[in-house]
Amino acid sequence: MDQDSERARFVDAHWAKLVQRVQMVMPIADELQSSGMLEWEPYCKIRAADTNQEKMRELYEVLHSGGDEVKSAFYSSLEKHEPSLFRDLGSTGHHTHSEKTHSSEISPVIHKYMKRICSEYQYVTEYNSLPGEHVLLSERFTQPLILRKHRDRKEREEEICSSGERLQQVLSSRSSGDSVHLSSLFDPDDHGNSPSSVILQGNSGNGKSFTVQKIMMDWASGDFYKGRFDIVFHLKCKEINRIPGEKSLVEILSCSCSLSSHEISQILQQSPEKVLVVIDGFDELKLTQDINDMSAHTDLLQKAPPVDTLCALLRGRILPESFLLVSSRSTATDTLSNLLKGPQRFSEIVGFSEKGVEEYFQKFFQNEELFREAYTYVKANETLITACSIPVVCWIICTTIQERFKYGAGATSGLETTTSIYVDFVCTLLEHHCQGLSQSVPTLLRSLGQLAERGMQEQQVLLDEKSVNETISDPAGNPFLCKFLFKRRIYQETMFSFMHLSFQEFFTALYYVLLDEEESLGKLTRFFDDIFTKPAVVQFAFGLLNKDVRFTLKKHGLFIRPKTQADLKEWILKKIKSQNQGCSLFSETVLVLHCLYELHEEDFVKEAMGSWKKIDPRGKLLRKRNIEYGKLLRRTDCCALLYCSQCCQSIEEISNLYLSSEDLSMILPELHKFKEARLTIRGPSDSDLGELIYALARGQTLSSQCVRVSIYRSLVLSINKEPSSFCIEIGRHPHPDLLSFSLTFPHSETINIDWTRLFQIIIHQRDSDALLSFLYSFSNLKKMVMSVRCLTEMWSVWTLKLTQNCPSLTELT
Ligand SMILES: Nc1ncnc2c1ncn2[C@@H]1O[C@H](COP(=O)(O)OP(=O)(O)OP(=O)(O)O)[C@@H](O)[C@H]1O
Question: Is 811 helix (H, G, I), strand (E, B) or coil?
Fold first, then answer.
């Protein structure tokens, strides 16, 4: 095969990957255009396409019609503009000069080092791993979303405040659909320039260390940076802090890897421009003096305090030709940037996109059924799915659910509350992501709470440096805060925030429940009177009262006074009382359900539900103003309702409940507990309705039940008290002649009827003959009330026949 056709086969074989990963489409297109391989019209189309992927698809049209010659020209351009991607894909058999020399020059020492890295880095130890337990990195690592852009103040605010799908939209608008791939962190920019150092910023728990491990593993297995870096070293700042005495760079490197000082020194001197040093956790580096005062030695072998030696490397005094990749939390990025040699590139691990969360769950469970159950459950909870964009939260949630599965429970059956996941997150960061805190945990958490509350009162998510410094003793070392630099005219402005608004809400709730006696009630009640602006804080406050949560907090020296617990419980009972009087709003009813869910205390939930005479998300107030009409319960609201119903034997009444068909199936097992229920179901199938009736018929309380179900815009079904009677009012369109239709039979009969078939005939078939013959099969039909648009001959004959065929029928109206 000649070179052109071989290159063309390469392009064809890797096309799918190329579409996803080529970033330098325009420089390649420019080159093809100026060499006459690309006409002006397709060139304009490529230029006009929004994303790199769309540009690549446009380009494919040209390559396809241009044949091997054009594909070969594209191959050459790719080699030039996307060297690392090109190397990852392995190129054709026609090696470039640098590749040939690289492979032949890799010394046995480096080979041995690579093998060692592979065997060491292939595993990850989890926070709860027992000795010797680990998981394979390849089976757990999920590509996070990495952005290169600095976002301005408005954009950051939007990211912090958005949740669920909205957050996904916001993030994908930031990345125009593309995330930076790990292998392209050092790729040339639009001008063809590569950076000497790359900053990899990320919040605590967002996966900086995990990503660094993946980069090391991929380099050592030959997947990344082949030919570009002969050797990659990995330094952890927290370990450098612990190295005693004075050390040269060579000695520091040898402390952290399997190579001897002599071997390292030889490698570094041989080809320093092929060395990458990955430095993890710059924020943890204990800088003892002003970075500008540190001795700036330039010798690989010169000894100095380890932190000074590292700073000399960062500044480019030692090994100026080498490349650096430095990870840091945002709280230290400005210091890092002042220190780091240039040209620098900024990149940020934003966390998992929605697709990433799904992939993580899939990898974690490695079982389609368990994955589906867990993911569906979490996806329905907007707060949790939003928090899942933080990888460590994904780990906490999956680990918790897996534990449930292990004991035979489903994901939904009593999964930890949202608050308990937040508490686990805080504990995980305190235990595994905090080095030598400068203050006690209770003081730290209280001050965070105070800061959060101040922000909530002022409706701010971006907190100014002054307030932060007044409240928090060491903001830079705080894993719960993020720091941003914004341009403001000719200045820079520093702001802080919590990782997301929900964490600010969580810390506010923590602050309130930890207040002492005098302050507590006043603040709480004042705050709770205004719950509509901060419902999440109220929910978290109830979640923090949960027994297990209190136990966890106690371990960290945080106590919630019994009086606070009693006050909050009293407050919710009062809310229920006012709901009984019809003064309810949809959001308030739902909030009460969520508070009870978050509290997760069966006895109290039973008491509260027992006092709730009428659960009506659309109480008097709303009916008058006709607002929030027809608001559907969300899946997460149904989970709360389900839990609250599970705690009780029977509940008085639920009204004006708008449900989707899936949510109906979720609460169906508990529906028989409601003495009276008025539901509106959006788009139910015939079998949903059938299932509904069976579920009610199976329930012990049916004889005293009154259930009225409106099938959105079309059909109202009501089940009344003894004797069981089903009234089906046909709404606007289903049946051309039949207006309403009510059947009465003994309770025992309800279970024997094929309800699904009946609904199918009435709603879909609309066939009067089929309906008649179906009714004949009811051996115990006692009463039938029917209203037709016009009593035609057909309907008269039909009713006569029915009286003849149903001997049990005593009343026909
Ligand atoms: N890309 C990923 N794929 C799968 N799991 C991840 C990923 N990133 C992070 N995790 C999970 O999150 C945990 C925390 O990640 P990691 O320790 O890398 O965070 P970090 O950003 O280094 O935090 P810190 O700044 O506090 O040191 C990991 O132990 C792992 O369970």
Answer: strand
Q: Kindly report the three-state secondary structure assignment for every residue of 244-284.
A: CCCECHHHHHHHCCCCCHHHHHHHHHHCHHHEEEEEECHHH
Kind of pairing, strands 197-202 and 323-328?
A: parallel
CA of 457 to the centre of ligand 1 (A): 32
d(CA 576, CA 611): 7
Angle at 314 between CA 308 and CA 316, to 5 degrees: 105
What separation in Å is there between the alpha carbon of 553 and the centre of ligand 1? 24
Q: Which two tokens stand for residue 371?
A: 């994955």
Q: What is the pLDDT of residues 549-563, one digit of tens each?
A: 999 999 999 999 888
How much is the average pLDDT of 794-810? 80
Residue nearest to atom 26 of ligand 1 (CA): 204
Q: Residue 224 and residue 87: Cα distance in Å, rounded?
A: 8
Band of pLDDT at residue 621, cut at 50, 70 and 90? very low
CB distance 209 to ligand 1 below 6 Å: yes
Cα of first residue to Cα of last residue in the chain, in angstroms, is 88
Nearest atom in ligand 1 to the alpha carbon of residue 210 is 18
Distance 390 CA to ligand 1 centre (A): 8
CA angle (518, 519, 520) in 5-degree steps: 95
The pLDDT > 90 percentage for the chain reads: 38
Architecture of domain 108-140+180-351: 3-Layer(aba) Sandwich (3.40)
Average pLDDT over residues 768-779: 77
Query: Does any ligand 1 atom lie closer than 6 A to the CB of residue 661?
Result: no
Q: What angle (nearest 5°) sits at the alpha carbon of residue 99, between those of residues 98 and 103? A: 120
Q: What is the largest CA-CA distance in the chain?
A: 109
Looking at the chain, which residues constitute the CATH 1.10.533 domain(s)?
A: 3-94
Tell me how far the alpha carbon of residue 395 lies from the centroid of ligand 1, in angstroms. 9
Question: Is 281 touching ligand 1 by the criterion CB < 6 Å?
Answer: yes
Q: Is 479 in the pocket of ligand 1 (CB under 6 A)?
A: yes
Q: Is the ipTM of this complex over 0.85?
A: yes
**CA–CA dist 606, 573 (Å, integer):** 12
CA 434–ligand 1 middle distance (angstroms): 14
User: Looking at this protein, which amino acid is placed at residue 13?
Assistant: A
Three-state SS at 91: coil
Say if ligand 1 is within 6 A of residue 144 CB.
Answer: yes
Q: What is the 3-state secondary structure (H, E, C) of 779-805?
A: CCCCEEEEEECCCCHHHHHHHHHHHHH
With tokens 């009204």, the residue in question is 655
**Angle, in degrees to the nearest 10, between helices 153-161 and 164-175:** 150
Task: Please tell me if the CB atom of residue 364 comes closer than 6 angstroms to any atom of ligand 1.
Answer: no
- E-only strand ranges, 662-751: 674-682, 706-711, 715-720, 725-730, 738-744
Nearest to 167 by CA among 348, 372, 363, 390: 390
Going by alpha carbons, the residue nearest to atom 5 of ligand 1 is 141
CB–CB of 598/546 below 8 Å? yes
Query: Quick one: tokens of 654?
Result: 């639920």
Query: Looking at residue 510, what is its pLDDT?
Result: 94
**Residue bearing the CA closest to ligand 1, atom 4:** 141
CA of 212 to the centre of ligand 1 (A): 10
Cβ-in-10-Å burial (0-12, 13-18, 19+) of 444 comes to buried
Question: Residue-wise over 619-654: b if at least 16 C-beta within 10 A, else e?
Answer: beebeeeeeeeebbbbbbbbbbbbbbbbbbebbeeb
What Cα–Cα distance (Å) separates residue 480 from each residue in 44, 158, 240?
47, 19, 23
Q: How far is the CA of 309 from the centre of ligand 1 (A)?
A: 27
Domain 3-94's class? mainly alpha
Give the per-residue pLDDT at 627: 45
**Residue whose CA lies nearest to ligand 1 atom number 25:** 204
Q: Where in the chain is the domain with CATH 3.40.50.300?
A: 108-140+180-351
Distance (Å) from CA 433 to ligand 1 centroid: 10
